[in-house]
# Entry
Amino acid sequence: MRCNACWREVEGRAVSTTCGHLLCTEDASKILGNDGACPICDQVLSKSLMKPVDINPNDEWVNMAMAGVSPQILMKSAHRSIMFYIGQKELEMQFKMNRIVAQFRQKCEAMQEKFTEKLEQVHTAYQKMAKRCQMMEQEIESLSKDKQELQEKFAEKSRQKRKLDEMYDQLRSEYESVKRSALQPATNFYSRNEPDLFSNQANILDNREAVRKVDLFLADWPVLTPETPGPKEDIWPARQNSSNSGGPFDISVGSPAKQAAIPVDAVNRRAGAHPMFGTGASNPSMTLRNLILSPIKRPQLSRNRPQMFTF
# Structure
C-alpha cells in the first residue's frame, strides 16, 4: 500500500487515521507537528485519532492477535480490513488517474497553445488573403471596364476598317475600269458585230468571188483629178538668165510640174465628166474656199447593185 500524502509505497510501520486513510510516519509527524488536516478529506487530525499499525506483521503476532476472539468479531474486523484495503486501492487508482489527467491536461494545454498560435497565423493569413481577394476583385472590375472600353474601341475601329475596305475596293474597281478604258484601243470604243466568215464553210468561195468582182469594178472606175480653177502660176518660177548660166543643168525651160500639168480640156473631154467645183472658176478666192470646205467627190456604187458585205 501507499501513503495517502506522498503516495510512496509504505514498508514496515505506518499510521492509520479514523477517517480511513494511511500515512507514513514522516507525513504523520508533519501533520501532528503543524496541527494540520488530512490531505485526503481535510479532517483535522490529532494524536488520539491516529494509530500506528504494522504493515507486514510476523506469524507470532498474527497468532496472538487472533487468539481468544470470537468469530463474529473476527468477521467484523475482517470486513473493516477489506473495506479499508478497497478504499486504499480506490484512492490509489484515483491518484493515478489524477496524475494521468494532469499529464494529459498539460499536454492539452501545450497543444492548445500551439493550436492557438497556428490559429492566429491562419487568421492572419486569412486576413491577408481576404485583403488580396478584395484587391483582386477591384482589379478585375477595373480590367472588366478596360475590356469593355477596348471592345467598344475595337468595334469602332472594325467599322472604320470595313468602311475603308469598301472605299478601297470601290476606288480599285474605278481604277481598274479607268485603266482598262485607257489601255483599250480606239477602235473598241464603238464596237460592232463583225461577221464570222468561217461560220459557214460553204460560203467561203462565194465571198471570195464577190470580193474579187468588187476589186475589179473599183479598178476599172476612172479616177478624176480636178483642176485648180483660177490663174495658174509656176511652182518653180523661171530664173533670169545670168552671164554664167548654161551648161548641162539649165532650168530655164520651167519646172517638171509645169511640164507634167494636165490641161483642163483633157479632164472635161472624158466621157461623163462634169466640172467638180461648179461655176466659180472665174473667182479664185471662192474656188479656193470651195476646195477647202468641200471634199472631193468619189465615185459611188449604184443603188440598185446588191451589197456584197453585210455588217
The CA atoms of residues 131 and 137 lie 10 Å apart. The first helix runs from residue 25 to 34. DSSP finds seven helices and three strands in the chain. Helices lie at 25-34, 59-66, 71-183, 204-220, 256-259, 264-268, 284-293.
